[in-house]
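In this supplementary section we document a worked example of the pipeline. Step one takes a protein sequence of length 118 as its only input; no multiple sequence alignment statistics are reported here. Step two produces a three-dimensional model, which step three serialises into structure tokens for compact storage. The input and output of this example are shown verbatim.
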Amino acid sequence: PRDPNKIRRIYRHIIKNYTYVIDPHRWQTVEETIKTRRGDCKSLSLLLMSLLASAGCDAYAGISNGHMWVVAFENNRWKVLELDRHPARNKIYAIPGFYDYPLYKIYPDRSERRKRMN
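The serialised model returned by step three reads:
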């Protein structure tokens, strides 16, 4: 049976069980993130995207402005899953269009760079 809340449950599991830390200089492996139960936007986004992909969900990680987040296909639309819950930084992410055109999209099987707009 299909689980309509699968994406939300996986996302909430990460928010509840992992500590968000700011570490802009280090790329952890998904294994390190699971072992330490902590990570920055990159580490937690790659973990979330990996879990969603292994659960059969369409998802990618977006990167722009020194930040990474996950976008998952849910209820016939793409939905942003933000792992940084800090109120001041969330005001920046709330700026209209912040998530719309990431510089990179990292899918489970490939990465795409945004094409230049002239």
